[in-house]
Amino acid sequence: MSSIAEKSAFLKYQYLPLIKTIAVDTVPVFGKMNVQQMVEHMASSIRLGYGNPIITTILTPEENIPKMQAFVLSDKPFKDNTPNALMSETPEPAQFSTIELSIIDLEKSVGELFDAFGKDQDLQVINPFFGVLDIDKTMSLLYKHALHHLRQFGVSVL
């Protein structure tokens, strides 16, 4: 899947139904997060995609940003167990009391993402790893991230 429109449509219409197919007790193929922690992590990542919270610091050296953004736009997946400098080795405990509440929050974050870009197609947001992202790079990154975590729990998309 290569077009931004297809990636956006996947996030808007296909991603959540796939998330809902994952049993809460599914053991991850890789990584340390359980299903609920992953769902909550994705809700936070999606919010970051439209600037909530607003990030002002880019952790990646400036000279590496073009390479990082080229990766975002490529079909190359995230590697299993890709480290995230903003996360501890031990996953944070779940914020919500049930997986159902976590999924509702994920649904809300997806809606907020599309609302934000619907109101401002020129919105640009700073990502701590990938630099300044426009709508195309944001949708590509979130699509890639969503596939990564679906794969983490054995959900095949292609």
Backbone shape: globular
Report the average pLDDT across residues: 95
Q: Could you say what the CATH architecture is?
A: Up-down Bundle
Q: Helicity level, as a percent range?
A: 40-55%
Going across the biggest sheet, name each strand in turn: 1-2
Q: Could you describe the largest sheet, including whether it forms a barrel?
A: 2 strands, antiparallel
- Helix-strand makeup class: mainly alpha
Number of helices: 5
Q: Can I get a quick summary?
A:
The protein is mainly α and 158 residues long. The chain is built from five helices and two strands, in the order ααααββα.
Kindly list the characteristics that best describe this protein:
globular, mainly alpha, Four Helix Bundle (Hemerythrin (Met), subunit A), 50% helix, 158 residues, 5 helices, two-stranded antiparallel sheet
